[in-house]
Design goal:
The complex is a heterodimer of chains A (714) and B (183).
Chain A: E1 3-11, E2 24-26, E3 30-35, H1 42-54, E4 56-59, E5 64-67, H2 72-75, H3 78-83, E6 86-97, E7 100-113, E8 116-119, E9 123-130, E10 133-137, H4 140-151, H5 157-160, E11 161-163, H6 166-170, H7 176-187, H8 190-216, H9 222-267, H10 269-304, H11 317-340, H12 354-363, H13 378-387, H14 401-411, H15 414-417, H16 421-455, H17 464-511, H18 516-561, E12 571-577, E13 580-586, H19 598-614, E14 616-617, E15 620-621, E16 627-630, H20 638-651, E17 654-659, H21 673-683, E18 689-696, E19 707-711
Parallel strand pairs in A: 3-17, 3-18, 11-16, 16-17
Antiparallel strand pairs in A: 1-2, 1-6, 4-5, 6-7, 7-8, 7-9, 9-10, 12-13, 14-15, 18-19
Helix pairs in contact in A: 8-18, 9-17, 10-16, 11-14, 12-13, 18-19
Chain B: H1 3-12, E1 16-18, H2 22-29, H3 46-60, E2 71-73, H4 83-94, H5 107-111, H6 115-146, H7 156-163, H8 175-182
The chains are: A alpha+beta (714), B mainly alpha (183).
């Protein structure tokens, strides 16, 4: 009955722009990796399954699952919405089960009328291909049957579809419901539980009947009547107190679990304080470097006009040199002119003479260019300016040489500065590059500190204050645990006393003479009680055996997943306490290990999921469906991920993993070194499966984002 | 006219630019200071942008005289800062006084020129300045319209300068340097 997904394709679904053919992922049994950076379609991929299976999608805006039918517009590609008039938003999954090939397509048609976007309802189409013949399924009930029973059955869906955070909820064996669901999945004891309930009711009914009959037959016996009344009172009291203990026990368990969670947290508190100190210092260094970058970048344009070193004048040294020479020459010319007392002002060769200029003014025509020069026009004024130029010796000198000297003095320092401007620019460019490189290093170091903090149970947001609140919560939990334990113990003592007096009453009641009919009722009630006891013991035994089997299996997986880690992950210990199971991590001396990083905690959970999935009832493996997971490794190191790839193919026939840990946006192949090793293992057949990398066409905001993909294992 | 009067006459002038460059001038002069986000930082004042455009025109060795039409006037040259850079710009103009478009001004003739004559010279000097700056603004506007990506770099105005040729030398009497050196 295994399901294998052959392909998944998208049409204009979120950032998967374009037709199905352009966005098709072909999968094989084994591990199928979709490696993508943030915002490149991992969760959207996951949403495709959510849409088909549950009519829901995860809405990252509200950080919760939303009704897919209400979210269709959001699900449509931003590019399709802005560029296409008519388009389809859809998901197509092809899978094989029991030699039949099923094609499921879910879609909605969109129309864009001048920017107003409307869409039809979502449509589900399924065809089945058997013996090379396609049969479309028309009946909607039958369609749902295929999705809920054939594709991925409802009861197993919790284990088949995992988002990073949902794992916590899934393997929460400390809640009665979650545990009983898991046991049901593994052992199929829901029928037995039904029998238990019937037998309990029957036993109670038989006992009530016997009590009634006994009471009827002893109406005249006052002492016996009193004892019967007393027995009823005691029984009621014992029953209600047992119910109270049950509730107390639930509260006690909840408090113990919460305390266990905080144990790891509290024990790492001082470590976190130290790490936070380093994080704060690193943040300060990063801020300083960022400020330096801003300061340099904002000073660049200013440097163009820096008074002492103006980049504006780069390469213009000749201007100063020529000016100096001209000035020197001018000083000489003026001296010579003063000596000779004469000044001849020469116009360039071929220039009109004085009489020509006067004629031109009179006739209002420029004889040089032949154009008219109306009186007082710009051209006419120009001719007049040439005519009026000083032609004779002036006795007073303007002495402009001093002005030239003033200019020369003002700009003279630039003759030293200009040759160095190129070096100065180069220096600033290099300095900026250096700071940016250093900033990158600091940010990488900061990421490492954050991982450390994460492993010590903290994150960037939780402050010292939160640590204090948690310490106070921890104190309250310890008080709750001890007060509940005292209460339960007191109530149990009460029950023991009442049971003691009940047995006295019963003894007395047995001593009263009964008639034959009453005796028969009594024997029947006793028989029913024995049957009820046996059935309950059987259920408990199955329950216990399942837990033991689960514990063994989970430990095998846990060992494999944590293999090669420097610190030991310990042993998973499953303890049944009342109707729940607490899973703790123990060392070899059975002491509780606390303070393990979040990675280990997640591995614990993953081991339990794998144990559930790989458990067999008889010879039949209960779980033979694809394991689809979005970002399950957000807390894991390379070693954990590597182990997962090694172990997973033995547990899941097929898994589809959306992951970002193998992605490096700076590498040509978009892979980290670790990613390349995984790919090599896949190509060499060590890890069966396919390897896809999502890339984006061009950087843009989310509305225009287009995800493309490359298959590395073709 | 004495040398102080010449200086005052030049410094009291307010050069103009074509009104079509006003949005560009405003954008890269005073507004949009978004440093630290990989964007460019602006020049301090209009006259700095004008001086920058002038140097572009000079380096290109090209002048585009202002056409008839609406022009925008801004701060008088006396207010331009830093003053040594302003003075450097006057130097580059004086270096070419014998090659002005409308008239060739010999320093020696200026020495004996009447007030009107010198006044005319100053007018021509400002027109030359405007013509170089106008060419520079055309160049900048083209970059702004067609190579917008350049303006995402804080180094944009440096890059533009570094990419320019040194055609200013063509209108400079470089020979005078070697001649004199030889002497």
């Amino acid at each position: 009955m295994a399901t294998i997904i052959n392909s998944v394709a998208f049409e204009n679904f979120y950032n998967y722009y374009g037709r199905y053919e352009q966005n098709e992922y072909k999968f094989k049994p084994g591990i199928n990796i979709i490696n993508a950076d943030n915002n490149m379609g991992k969760s959207k991929f996951y949403n495709a399954f959510m849409w088909i299976l549950q009519d829901q999608v995860y809405d990252s805006d509200i950080k919760a699952f939303a009704d897919a039918n209400e979210s269709l517009t959001k699900m449509a590609s931003g590019k399709a919405k802005s560029e296409d008039k008519k388009f389809k938003v859809g998901v197509k999954v092809v899978f094989t089960n029991n030699n039949k090939i099923y094609t499921i397509e879910k879609y909605s048609n969109f129309i864009n009328r001048n920017g107003e976007i409307t869409h039809g309802p979502s449509v589900l189409e399924i065809t089945v291909n058997e013996n090379n013949g396609d049969t479309p399924i028309d009946d909607s009930t039958e369609k749902q049957e295929i999705i809920n029973r054939v594709f991925i059955p409802l009861a197993l869906r919790n284990y088949a579809l995992l988002q990073g955070e949902s794992m916590d909820r899934l393997v929460d064996l400390s809640s009665k419901k979650a545990l009983s669901d898991t046991i049901d999945t593994l052992a199929g004891i829901s029928i037995l539980k039904g029998i238990c309930e019937i037998s309990r009711k029957q036993s109670k009914k038989a006992d009530d009947l016997y009590q009634d009959k006994d009471s009827e037959n002893s109406n005249n016996d006052t002492a016996k009547q009193r004892d019967i009344k007393e027995r009823k009172n005691k029984n009621d009291l014992i029953e209600s107190t047992k119910e109270e203990i049950e509730n107390d026990q639930d509260e006690l368990n909840a408090a113990k679990i919460e305390k266990e969670e905080l144990d790891a947290y509290i024990s790492n508190s001082s470590k976190r304080t130290e790490i936070r100190g380093r994080l704060d210092r690193k943040n300060l260094d990063i801020d300083n470097e960022k400020n330096s970058i801003i300061s340099i970048e904002s000073s660049i344009t200013k440097r163009i006009f820096d008074e002492d070193n103006p980049w504006l004048l780069m390469g213009l040294i000749d201007e100063i040199d020529v000016f100096d020479k001209k000035r020197e020459k001018h000083v000489g010319d003026v001296a010579q002119m003063n000596n000779e007392g004469a000044l001849v002002i020469m116009l360039p060769e071929g220039s009109p003479d004085t009489s020509s200029l006067e004629r031109m003014l009179k006739n209002e025509v420029c004889e040089v260019c032949g154009q008219p020069a109306a009186k007082h026009s710009e051209a006419w004024e120009h001719i007049k300016m040439i005519l009026d130029r000083p032609k004779k010796i002036s006795t007073t000198r303007n002495n402009f040489g001093q002005f030239y000297g003033f200019l020369q003095k003002s700009a003279s320092s630039y003759s030293r500065v200009i040759p160095k401007i190129d070096d100065s620019i180069e220096f600033v460019r290099n300095r900026l590059d250096e700071i940016k490189e250093h900033l990158e290093e600091l940010e990488t170091e900061r990421e490492e500190i954050l991982v450390e903090l994460n492993n010590a149970g903290g994150n960037e947001e939780n402050s010292e204050k939160k640590d204090k609140i948690i310490t106070s919560d921890y104190g309250n939990l310890i008080n709750t645990i001890s007060s509940k334990e005292r209460e339960i113990s007191r109530k149990k003592k009460d029950i023991a006393l009442w049971e003691n007096s009940l047995s006295m009453i019963n003894k007395r009641l047995n001593s009263y003479k009964k008639n034959t009919e009453t005796q028969k009722y009594e024997e029947f009630a006793l028989l029913m009680k024995n049957i009820n006891d046996v059935i309950n013991q059987t259920k408990d035994e199955i329950f216990d055996r399942t837990i033991v089997a689960l514990e063994n299996e989970a430990n095998k997986k846990y060992e494999a997943l944590t293999f090669g880690n420097q610190s030991s992950g310990g042993i998973l210990k499953f303890e049944r306490n009342h109707d729940v199971v607490n899973v703790s991590i123990r060392d070899v001396q059975n002491g509780v290990i606390t303070g393990l990083g979040t990675g280990f905690q997640r591995m614990k959970q993953l081991a339990i999921v794998m144990a559930v999935i790989s458990s067999k009832i008889g010879n039949e493996k209960k779980f033979d469906y694809p394991f689809i997971s979005d970002a399950p490794f957000s807390e894991f190191g390379e070693n954990f991920i590597s182990n997962f790839f090694r172990v997973a193919p033995n547990v899941f026939t097929q898994s589809i993993i959306m992951i970002k840990e193998l992605y490096d946006s700076n590498a040509n192949d978009f892979l980290t070194a670790f990613g390349r090793r995984v790919l090599e293992d896949m190509k060499s057949g060590k890890i069966p499966g396919t390897f896809y990398v999502n890339v984006i066409k061009e950087k843009t905001d989310t509305t225009g984002l287009v995800t493309l993909h490359k298959c590395y294992t073709d | 006219m004495n040398y102080q009067e010449l200086r005052d006459t030049i410094f009291s002038r307010k050069p103009k630019y074509n009104i079509k460059f006003k949005p560009l001038m405003e954008r890269i002069s005073t507004k949009g200071d978004t440093t630290g986000k990989g964007d460019f930082s602006t020049f301090g004042a209009f006259y700095q942008t004008f001086m920058y455009a002038y140097i572009i025109g000079l380096r290109l060795g090209e002048k585009t005289p202002l056409e008839a039409g609406e022009k925008v006037e801004f701060a008088p040259i006396s207010n331009w800062k830093p003053t040594p850079i302003r003075d450097f710009i006057i130097i580059t103009l004086l270096n070419r006084s014998e090659k002005f478009d409308n008239f060739q001004w010999d320093w020696l003739s200026l020495e004996n020129g009447s007030e009107e004559h010198v006044g005319n010279f100053v007018t021509m000097l400002i027109r030359e300045m405007e013509a170089y700056a106008n060419r520079g603004l055309i160049y900048l506007q083209d970059k702004w319209d067609n190579e917008k990506i350049l303006f995402t770099s804080p180094f944009v105005f440096v890059d533009i300068l570094q990419d320019l040729p040194y055609n200013n030398k063509q209108s400079l009497d470089i020979d005078s340097l070697s001649t004199n050196n030889n002497v």
